[in-house]
Amino acid sequence: MEKKIDLNSPITALSGIGPKRADLFAALGVFTVGDLLRLFPRGYQNRGDVKTLCEAAMSGETSSMILTVGSEPKSVTVKNRMTLTKFTAFDESGKCQIVFFNQGYIRQLFHIGETYRFYGKVTRTKSSWNLSSPDFEPTSLSRALPDFYAVYPLTAGLSQKIVRGAIALALDGAELNCERVPEKIRKENSLIDFAEATRIIHRPQNLEQLERARKYFVFEELFEFALSVMHSKREKENVPGAKLSLSDEDKRAFVNALSFALTDAQARVIREIYADMGSGRAMHRLVSGDVGSGKTVCAAAALYLAAKNSRQAAFMAPTEILATQHYRDLSVLFEGLGIKCTLLVGSMTKAQKNAAYAEIASGEAKVIIGTHALISQGVEFCDLALAVTDEQHRFGVNQREMLSAKGKNLHVLVMSATPIPRTLAMSIYGDLDHSAVDSLPPGRQKVSTFLVDETYRERLTGFIRTQASEGRQIYVVCPAIESGDTTDGETDTSALVDFYGKPMDFSSSKLKSATEHAQNLAKALDGVSVACLHGKMHSAEKDTVMRDFVDGKVSVLVSTTVIEVGVNVPNATLMIIENAERFGLSQLHQLRGRVGRGKYKSWCILVGENLAEQSKKRLEALCETSDGYRIAEADLALRGPGDFFFERGKELRQHGALSFRMADLYSDMDVLHSAFEAAKSFCDKEI
User: With helix as H, strand as E and coil as C, how does 225-244 read?
Assistant: First the structure.
């Protein structure tokens, strides 16, 4: 008896998939039949939008055409032993020659008078229209052809035909019994079931069907995510923590030691932190805020509270430059308050590290600032009560947990420079209490922001030269280290539509690479110091380049987004972002925040070429406001491919969230709230 295929069956259980092909699918994360059916399309070819030959030729785009075969196919062998199979086809607007390469079997498929739906790009020579190697399907009065064809992610060695064939076998032969959403919740949210959603997502007949299938998988993902968040939050609510407090005199001493007055937002967040740390339960709080909003002083207040209670506090930053900057600023503050502050970073000498280890182990050091060196072997805290993580999305879950493991029932404070709308933060970071530093200190420089294209290139170079000649410094950010094509090389991306039937937004501009652009600028700016910084450089090399920029030895820093957050260079007045359409709005806002930090007038120039209308609107929204929370809201309103959390997908996964395959945290905000309501109800009943 033939064994039934189910979702847990290895992919080799499908006909035509042997070990070699299975290895190719493994590169896509596909090991089982269930994995294969969750290899969701990245877009769809809209073959239902049928054009005449004339319309298709005039559009210059990949199109569908209903054509009748006008001549018997003939094959000829040309040089290099290539076989060309040709025949003519026509409709009411004209005729064309159709050519297939090295596909001799085509001669047996097409006959005069038969009608097919062809899908391809029509080109024109002096004498005729031509259609090369199109996809094709016979038309039939008894069977309507589907409008949409799925286009899948690929890897080298796999074609769309192979992936579609494997998925067809799985759909037709496997038992689709993997329901993850309880029936009651499905009915309450008007969801179809898993089996129907799976069939439709791969074989949609129309947009209405596709949206129902997509809604199911979006809800399923967000429901599972919500359950994990609820479970984590309820676990944390019952964890005891050190009960810490300050006298009114100590509170005044901290505020008086600052060189500036606290904003109302900073004062409110500090009160929330003090209430947490004095409750007897372990604090788990996220502090988010706009660029330059002053989140660090809120962390300093928490460090101070721990130290004044004779406990230790650790402050972990993602880079040595940022850790050293925090140490330089905070050590002056804390030493004035009688608190010993110690630095621990990887580049310190063995003797320096040993001295730091001793101060930490003995309890002499109350505030310890460092990088991931804080979680390395050899670091033993005497009495750690608080762990603060700066730019928390730069650390993985494991790294943060390793820091927390250095003490027992620690208070945990994580900081994010990403302004997050409150409703979104409540959902995404539902396992953390959330404080927003939602106003800027007075005197913060406004950064003038402009969107330009390549016609401004010469003027841009001149502006860089002028700024450098005045002693100012310049950032130039590129989206790539080296130029390269990011498509799979097989599919015409201009013809794809997304899950909403809208054309997918792919920029046609060439990517600027940091290495090449740095070389070009160095030639154009003869006599101006230009350096390059990117993620493939060794840590020591990156630190050296960044330190030279901080110290003013480098005037122009050409970089990838490794400079996105943290480092404070008040002398930097110009930020130029190449291929700006390739970045999310919030990431662009973070990059803009690297300038305007001193007393000099500052600018941010967004460079984009051949922009789609949606990309242009997004970038214009950034030019119109410097309010990070308004920009975040604009992200929610202007859903684009990967907007808002595209660049922070890693942050979400590291935070403990699911790796969303289908859900989009812009367009699916209503579903996100519904999923959390359903998860809360589900968890309450379990309790």
Answer: HHHHHHHHHHHHHCCECCCC
Residues, the chain, total? Answer: 687
Q: How far is CA 641 from CA 40, 428, 440, 615, 645, in A?
A: 15, 19, 30, 10, 10
* Side-chain-side CA neighbours of residue 407 (13 Å): 26
At 382-394, the pLDDT tens digits run: 999 999 988 654 5
User: Which tokens sit at 678?
Assistant: 């359903």
Hey, is 644 helix, strand or coil? coil
Mean pLDDT of the chain: 85
Scanning the structure block, which residue is given the tokens 């922070």?
A: 648
Using left for φ > 0, alpha for ψ between -120 and 50, and beta otherwise, residue 364 falls in alpha
* pLDDT for 458 beyond 80: yes
In contact, 391 and 415? CB cutoff 8 Å? yes
User: CB of 602 within 8 A of CB of 574?
Assistant: yes
Please report the beta strands in 478-630, taking only residues with DSSP state E, as ranges in sequence order. Answer: 496-497, 530-533, 556-559, 572-577, 602-607
Among 684, 655, 663, which residue's Cα sits nearest to residue 214? 663
| Interatomic CA distance for residues 245 and 250, integer angstroms | 10
Distance, in Å, from the CA atom of 181 to the CA atom of 194, rounded to the nearest integer, reads: 9
Q: Which of 81, 133, 54 is nearest to 490 (CA)?
A: 133
Residue 464 exposed, middle or buried by CB count within 10 Å (0-12, 13-18, 19+): buried
* Section 417-437 average pLDDT: 69
Beta-strand pair 94-101/115-124? unpaired
Q: Which of 631, 603, 628, 604 is nearest to 617 (CA)?
A: 631
Q: Is the pLDDT of residue 496 over 60?
A: yes
pTM higher than the cut 0.70 = no
Task: At 88, give phi and psi (nearest 5°).
Answer: -105, 155
- Do residues 420 and 445 make contact, with C-beta atoms less than 8 angstroms apart? no
At which residue do the structure tokens 């085509």 appear? 106
Average pLDDT over every residue of 183-202: 95
Contact, 324 vs 347, CB < 8 A?
A: no
Q: How far apart are CA 148 and CA 144, in angstroms?
A: 12
Residue 654 pLDDT level (bands cut at 50, 70, 90): very low
Distance in Å from the first CA to the final CA of the chain: 45
SS3 126: coil
> Where does 390-454 have alpha helices with state H?
397-404, 422-428
Express each pLDDT in 340-362 by its tens digit. 999 999 889 999 999 999 999 99
Per-residue DSSP letter, 588: H
Structure-token pair, residue 361: 């182990």
- Helix (H/G/I), strand (E/B), else coil: 432: coil
pLDDT, one tens digit per residue, over 241-272 is 999 999 999 999 999 999 889 999 999 999 99
How is residue 207 written in tokens? 């947009």
Tokens encoding 197: 């959603």
Task: Compute the 3-state secondary structure of the chain and give helix, strand, coil in percent, each to the nearest 5.
Answer: 40, 20, 40
Residue 133: pLDDT over 60: yes
CB 504, CB 497: distance < 8 Å = yes
Question: Within 13 Å of residue 196, how many CA atoms lie on the same side as its CB?
Answer: 11
Q: Rounded CA gap, 632 and 584, in Å?
A: 10
Average pLDDT over residues 37-53: 92
